[in-house]
């Protein structure tokens, strides 16, 4: 018999939002439930709901109280949140991200190699092997918090964060890896850079991915990075230029 999942907690978050909590840990099953509920609300919209913000184990639902009441929305969300989470493979797309792990793009590669005991080639091989789950977006528009990093690559954050990390930089911070979509301060160990723009407000769809999707990295040379144009060799279901 399948173990019964704990019932979600639904509480107000101000006067026009509800927070649905499935737990309080970073757990793939909890995250599946978050994105399953978000997917349900996208596919079968509720009148009055105008935005959703998924995180590791909770979903913030913003609504217009002049259209739908707190009590009515809470009952509806509770009913949907109890449903079985959808199959993850059908829940989101796979986005292939090219990364150049060379030269100045990999400013902390030596640190990661020294901490893990691996060669540069082994770090790249281990970093490009997993299919990473996008648990949530945060910190910056399009910054993905990814799960699935090989535990052997875990490396502590910098003791003193840098004042500027170039856009497109790919880094490791503890047990996670991620992409800096914009120039910004940051404390993760930088091991490469992608020529893609994870976030571009000028595009019809500003984000290359969203929470609930998956990312697969693949290695490219500096020449391929410099020659980046409309198309790059890609792996997986979908790639972007």
UniProtKB/TrEMBL annotation:
Keyword annotations from UniProtKB, A to Z: ATP-binding, Hydrolase, Nucleotide-binding
Domain Carboxyltransferase: 8-209
InterPro entries registered for this protein in UniProt: CT_C_D (IPR003833), Cyclophilin-like_dom_sf (IPR029000), PxpB (IPR010016)
Protein name per UniProt: Carboxyltransferase domain-containing protein
Taxonomic superkingdom: Bacteria
GO terms, molecular function: ATP binding; hydrolase activity
Alphabetized Pfam families for the sequence: CT_C_D
């Amino acid at each position: 018999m399948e173990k019964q999942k704990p019932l979600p907690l639904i509480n107000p978050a101000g006067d026009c939002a509800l927070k649905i909590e499935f737990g309080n840990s970073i757990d793939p099953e909890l995250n599946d439930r978050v994105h399953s509920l978000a997917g349900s609300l996208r596919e079968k919209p509720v009148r009055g709901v105008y935005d959703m913000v998924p995180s590791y184990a909770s979903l913030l639902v913003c609504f217009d109280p002049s259209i739908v009441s707190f009590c009515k929305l809470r009952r509806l969300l509770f009913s949907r949140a109890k449903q079985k989470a959808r199959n993850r493979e059908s829940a989101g797309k796979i986005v292939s991200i090219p990364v150049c792990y060379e030269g100045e793009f990999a400013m902390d590669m030596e640190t990661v190699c020294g901490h893990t005991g691996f060669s540069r080639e082994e770090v790249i091989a281990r970093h490009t092997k997993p299919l990473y789950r996008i648990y949530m977006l945060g910190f910056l528009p399009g910054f993905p918090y990814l799960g699935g990093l090989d535990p052997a690559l875990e490396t502590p954050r910098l003791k003193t964060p840098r004042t500027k990390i170039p856009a497109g930089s790919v880094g490791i911070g503890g047990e996670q890896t991620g992409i800096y979509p914009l120039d910004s301060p940051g404390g993760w160990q930088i091991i490469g850079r992608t020529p893609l723009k994870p976030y571009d407000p000028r595009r019809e769809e500003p984000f290359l991915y969203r929470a609930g999707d998956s990312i697969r990295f693949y290695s490219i040379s500096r020449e391929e990075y410099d020659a980046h144009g409309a198309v790059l060799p890609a792996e997986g279901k979908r790639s972007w230029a």
